[in-house]
Amino acid sequence: MRIIKVKDYDEMSKKAAEIIIERVRRAPDMVLGLATGGTPIGTYQELVSDHVHAETSYRNVTTFNLDEYIGLSGESSHSYRAFMNKHLFELIDILEENIHIPNGVSEDIQKECIEYEELIQKHGGIDLQILGIGQNGHIGFNEPGTSFESTTHIVELDPSTREANARFFKNSEDVPEKAITIGIATIMRSKEILLLISGEQKRAAFKQLVNGEVDEKFPASVLKKHQNVSIIADDAARGD
Ligand code: GLP
Questions:
Q1: With a 6 A CB cut-off, is 219 part of the ligand 1 pocket?
Q2: Does the annotation count 136 as an active-site position?
Q3: pLDDT band at 205 (very low <50, low <70, confident <90, very high)
């Protein structure tokens, strides 16, 4: 794991965007794995600004998002689909047919998981996967205890994850109890991974990731077994 040290959230966002833009320019038809949460918002703003000013194009890029809440349709403002539309997709020239996010209101969620996984593999896997990290070490919505062999599956969200994500909802009870997430094995098949960590509230997770053992109890620890992972961590997350 390569650790890229940055000062703060802004610098993290700029650095992450710089790496993504370089990869998109080098391979305009790449497959990009995207994340939601507060962490990548600044990165998406940088991508949009670069798209407007430097005209990096996403016309041939295919995207796969990590996860989606079960029970929320793309039209719901709290869905990850709506989040992505607002922060990125509506602001760049990506084609609708190249955007992929699990369907949280599919009639057959199990089938949705299988098909989503197959679709990723059909596109040759993910070239660059962007990740945030939960305070409990979750990546995507792979909560502690998830098998490292897991592919796209249904998850029961950890109470601490629901609490952490309640800030995006009006009432904490509105946070869905379940989600669809790509699995740990799916993430590990990505050719390159970029993990973003910012803020004091992620310090314990950063420490555990860097110093801890590889253990299913801390999902992000699996990244130590990947050949091409960069972590962009700011001063507050690193604690120095
Ligand atoms: C959610 C997402 C994760 C994200 C995590 C951290 O649970 N499913 O993909 O990494 O939150 O979010 P934040 O960046 O808001 O701290």
A1: no
A2: yes
A3: very high
Distance 71 CA to ligand 1 centre (A): 18
Mention every residue, 6+ apart, whose C-beta is less than 8 A from residue 183.
Answer: 117, 140, 142, 146, 147, 149, 150, 151, 152, 153
Is residue 50 domain-resident? Answer: yes
Catalytic residue among 143, 165, 192, 234: 143
Distance 84 CA to ligand 1 centre (A): 13
Backbone φ and ψ of 32, nearest 5°:
-110, 130
User: Quick one: how far is CA 187 from the chain centroid?
Assistant: 10
Which residues form the domain of 40? 2-196+213-238
CATH number at residue 14: 3.40.50.1360
Per-residue model confidence (pLDDT) at position 136: 94
Tell me, letter by letter, the H, E, C secondary structure of 2-56: EEEEECCHHHHHHHHHHHHHHHHHHCCCCEEEECCCCCCHHHHHHHHHHHHHHCC
Using the atom order of ligand 1, give the atom closest to the CA of residue 141.
8
Query: Does a structural domain hold residue 94?
Result: yes
**88-122 pLDDT, tens digit each:** 999 999 999 999 999 999 999 999 999 999 999 99
Asked if residue 144 belongs to a domain, the reply is yes
Q: Is residue 206 part of a domain?
A: no
Our answer on whether the CB atom of 67 is closer than 6 Å to any ligand 1 atom is yes
What mean pLDDT comes out for the span 204-221?
98
* Catalytic option among 51, 87, 138, 153: 138
The CB of 143 under 6 Å from ligand 1? The reply is no
The residues with which 6 forms a beta bridge, in sequence order, are 234
pLDDT value for 240? 78
